[in-house]
Specification:
Blueprint: E1 11-13, H1 18-25, H2 31-34, E2 36-37, E3 42-46, H3 50-57, H4 71-83, H5 95-102, H6 120-123, E4 129-135, E5 144-150, E6 162-171, H7 173-179, H8 183-186, E7 193-197, H9 205-211, E8 217-220, H10 227-240, E9 244-246, H11 247-250, H12 253-262, H13 266-269, E10 275-283, H14 288-301, E11 304-311, E12 314-320, E13 326-334, E14 346-353, E15 360-367, H15 373-376, E16 383-390, H16 397-407, H17 414-427
Parallel strand pairs: 2-6, 3-4, 3-7, 4-6, 7-8, 8-9, 10-13, 15-16
Antiparallel strand pairs: 1-5, 5-6, 10-14, 11-12, 12-13, 14-15
Length: 428
């Protein structure tokens, strides 16, 4: 289903006029023309779309600028990886790709529809207000403030839809910083407010701090940005008690569910108490997702972290089980010929259980995108081998965000809250 545009062409207003305009838009006199104002939630989106902007500027991608992870955008970015002679394992929307494309020649322009181009997964939730911060690659561009009414597309035979509005703040970094003062009256205390930081976690830290303070609920992606800063920010927000959600953690759902099902049979549950080794392979050099999964396993099984160390192409750590037995952990970065859009996605996992009396067990989980030949080696002839292929989801970020918002959680997932501090410690 294709994203839809707003009901009307957005109206450009002076920032100071925006709150009053929106009040008038939803006054009883106006509701007959725009529908009923939804009493749901507000969503504030940081939407830089740096790769899309640079690829369009350099003539390698057709406009308009939407902020969506479209197939043409990903294809153009993969071609840019080749043309810039970057390692083939570079994720297509990585910061290194953006920097490389920024050096390409070209001055093409296109219409900027960020904030007006609304994904159906989000519109189905009928948000009351969508506020998009759209920084431009022209750092000196002045602030533009756009406002429009918005209604989800009515279903066949449906009645009047509950409508909302969109607000777009567009301009250079400094201009956006100056425009943040209008946000407070636009986020009423009577409705929950979510902030989706849809960009690298380590970019624009001052803006991020101003936008994402509690009680606003935060959505981030720890696959975007420096791994240390990603996991450290996640840890800090979790420990502060702020409601925080991580799209990178959400993508681990099928891995956690598959692993739980493997150990569900009664004859295999005892092996969980005798694990001696855990190995995890991830794509490329972004370990956040693999460390979050390792931390979840360690927390669920009551392991204590003894030490951790960075090694070539990965991380090693030593845990102790509750009975004092040591568990060795290694996370390894493996190359990928055509890496996932999201950096550092899981490739495979191996758990080895060695009870003192009885048959040892080796469990190997593999992603659909590749085999686990490295994990299948290593002298396991005396172990009962169990292998599973994990069904990897390929949802868009908008679909993942919609899944989170649909749950309406006002606190951090308790499993993530327990895993995040340990994952940060594993990275050191």
């Amino acid at each position: 289903m294709s994203p839809q545009l707003t009901l009307q062409t957005p109206l450009e207003l002076a920032p100071a006029e925006v709150p009053h305009y929106l009040e008038q838009l939803w006054s009883p006199e106006q509701q007959g023309s725009t529908g009923t104002g939804a009493n749901t939630f507000c969503l504030l989106i940081w939407q830089p779309a740096w790769a899309e902007q640079q690829l369009i500027r350099s003539g390698r991608l057709s406009g308009p600028i939407t902020g969506q992870q479209s197939a043409p955008l990903i294809a153009a970015a993969r071609q840019a990886v080749l043309d810039a002679d970057l390692p083939l394992s570079t994720p297509p929307l990585d910061g290194t790709v953006v920097k490389a494309v920024a050096d390409f020649q070209g001055q093409a322009s296109a219409e900027d529809l960020r904030g007006q181009y609304i994904d159906p997964a989000l519109s189905a939730l009928m948000p009351r207000r969508l506020i998009t911060l759209a920084p431009t690659i022209d750092a000196g561009q002045p602030l533009e403030t756009l406002v429009a009414a918005y209604c989800p597309l009515p279903e066949e035979g449906g009645g009047t839809a509950a409508c909302g509005d969109v607000v777009v703040l567009r301009g250079g970094h400094s201009a956006l910083g100056e425009g943040l003062s209008i946000l407070e009256p636009l986020l009423p205390a009577s409705m929950p407010a979510w902030v989706w930081w849809n960009g690298c976690i380590d970019e624009a830290p001052e803006l991020m701090q101003r936008l994402t303070g509690a009680p606003r609920r935060l959505i981030i992606d720890t696959a975007l940005g420096n791994p240390h800063q990603c996991l450290e920010l996640l840890r800090k927000r979790v420990e502060s008690g702020q409601a925080v959600n991580d799209l990178n953690w959400l993508r681990l759902r099928s891995w956690r569910e598959t692993l739980a099902m493997v150990f569900d049979p009664p004859q295999r549950r005892d092996a969980l108490s005798h694990i001696t080794r855990l190995d995890i392979d991830v794509e490329g050099h972004h370990p956040a997702q693999g460390l979050l999964l390792a931390a979840w396993i360690a927390d669920r099984l009551g392991w204590t972290l003894v030490s951790t160390a960075a090694v070539e192409n990965g991380t090693t750590a030593l845990f102790k089980r509750s009975d004092g037995t040591e568990v060795n952990f290694q996370l390894m970065a493996v190359p990928a010929a055509q890496p996932n859009v999201h950096a550092g996605q899981m490739v495979g996992l191996r758990l080895i259980a060695e009870p003192e009396n009885g048959q040892g067990v080796c469990v190997i989980l593999c992603a659909e995108s590749g085999g686990c030949m490295r994990l299948e080696g290593g002298g396991m002839a005396n172990l009962e081998l169990h292998e599973e292929v994990v069904p990897v989801q390929h949802d868009t970020p908008e679909m993942d965000v919609a899944r989170l918002l649909g749950g309406g959680h006002d606190s951090t997932n308790p499993l993530l809250a327990a895993a995040a501090p340990l994952a940060a410690r594993l990275l050191g």
